[in-house]
Amino acid sequence: MSDLLSKLQSSLVTARKAQDKERTLVLSTLVAQVKDHGLKIDHPIGDADVVDVLRKGLKTRQDSIEQFEKAGRQELADKEKAQSKVIEEFLPAAIDPAVVKAAAKAAVAAGAKDIGALMKVLMPQFKGKADGKVINDAAREALQAG
Fold first, then answer.
1. What is the pLDDT of residue 146?
2. Top-level CATH class of 3-88?
C-alpha cells in the first residue's frame, strides 16, 4: 500500500475521532476514490496514483468554486475552498513553472515539433509533480518561441 494512502487513512481516523464532519467527508471521499482507482489499474496503488486522484479531486473543486462564484453562491464556494485546502495538505509541493518551461524549451530544441510530441516528452517527466495545465501552457509557449 502506498505511504500517501496510509497517511490519508490515518488522517481520516483522526478526523472521525475528533468528530470533524467536513474533514471526515473529504477524506472518506478521497480514500474511496483512491480505492476505486486501484480497481481500475493493473498494478498496486502507488503514491503517484494517489496524487493523480488528489489532483483530480482538487481540479473538480476548483471548477466548482469558479461556477459557484459566477452564480453568486459564495457560501458554497467557501465550502469547496475549505475542501480544497484539505486536499492540498496531502499533495507534494508543485514544481516551479520555470522548471517546466525550461524543460519544454529543451525538448523543442531537441526536435519536438508539435504539441503531441512535446507533451509525450514532458508528461512522464512531470506527472504528479506539476499540474497538466501548467505543462500544456509551457509546451505551447515553447512551440511559439521555438
1. 63
2. mainly alpha
